[in-house]
Amino acid sequence: MISKKQEFEREVSELEQQIESSYNEFLDMSRALESEKESLRNILKEIQNLKHDIQKNQDDFKNLIPILTEKERTVSGLKVQIDSFTEELYNDYSISEQELVSEFQNRNLERTKEEVKLKRLKSDIQMLGSINPLSIEEYRNVKEIFEHHRVQKEDIEKSKADVEDVLSRINEESEKLFRETFEKIRENFQETFSTLFNGGRAILELAENEDSLNAGIEIMAEPPGKHVQNLRLLSGGEKSMTAIALLFAIYMVKPSPFCFLDEIDAALDEANKLRFCQILDKFKDKSQFIVITHAQSTINRANSLFGVTNEEPGISKILSLKLNEAVSIAEKVTEAAV
Fold this sequence. Notes:
Blueprint: H1 2-93, H2 97-104, H3 113-128, H4 134-197, E1 201-206, E2 217-222, H5 236-253, E3 258-262, H6 270-283, E4 288-292, H7 296-300, E5 304-312, E6 315-322, H8 323-337
Parallel strand pairs: 3-4
Antiparallel strand pairs: 1-2, 5-6
Helix pairs in contact: 1-3, 1-4, 4-5, 4-6, 5-6
């Protein structure tokens, strides 16, 4: 179970790292996109101002054209009237155009309002200058850039939604598997605890937390004849037995190929050491147990023994012995002696 849990946690960690990496890439792209959008907004604003100025100038130009046309028509009419007046003047009074001009050439005649206005309109038209045809092409280029970034933004938002959906499904599946496994371990814990203590009650509970995957685990153990809620009030042997019960409760869900136990029976009395050995016998066909111990009862249950001695100072020597072979040799020696 521990191996599967570690494997599962590793897979979750890898997925979280991938999600974190994708999310960081998303943040970088979002920041870059935001910077591009800001630049684009400034360009669009400038283009909008240019378009506004162009439109205003075009409107002014369009408004001036009919006025100019009307004034030119008025001037033409005045010229016709002058020609007609000159002809009538000559017919009626025998005064030629040259004589009339000579008569008034030394006079400073005031210009008519129409002539002054016509001159001002012509000046306004000249001040408008020529329209920049490149502004339309520039607008198209900026619009194309904007569309490109808009599509990128939509892709990023879609990727973000996909990642969040995957993360949500992973969390849901993880929580479901965790709760199912935890429920099995809790039932097994009560069973192994009762076996080791020959009775009593043991409970596993998740600490209050909205996220069960990150919640703590509370252990309540009551050996037979005791009413104890806090594990610190248990004796050293009772704490060891409770830990052994929890370990094998996990093994009952998913046995590990091998298990290394370092003097786990050190605090146990002889009766509890025997119960511990019975638990080992129950699981020895599913897992290989490597136990460091000084207890004779535990040594007697082993298939192989490895001892460490110091025959010389500073030099360790390992001795190994398979009990079944030793028993067989002893039996042969006994038979030979008989």
